[in-house]
Amino acid sequence: MPPTSEPSTSDTAQPTDADALQAEVTRLRELVGPDEAAYTSLKIELWAARDSAFGAEMAAGELRGQVKVLEGQLAQANRNRRWMVERIKAPLRRVKAILR
User: Fold this and answer.
1) pLDDT per residue over 76-86, tens digit each?
2) Rounded CA gap, 87 and 14, in Å?
3) Domain enclosing residue 27, as ranges
């Protein structure tokens, strides 16, 4: 029988750093896609979405400001209406009082 050789330390089942790195690359490719261009594309889409959200927040802020202005104008219009109603009602009350 031929002598059996013992496995060397490099042939053992211990994963090396290169094996661990290759396994990580494989895992990441399963998450992102088969090539790094897909990752870059996703990053660009993320930035575009972030910029769109930022723009939407700015537009919402502008609309909130416009609503505040309109609320102020409505309050002023209501004050003016009450003042006009009083200006009309006071003489009418005096006329009704005279006619009684």
Assistant:
1) 999 999 999 99
2) 96
3) 17-99
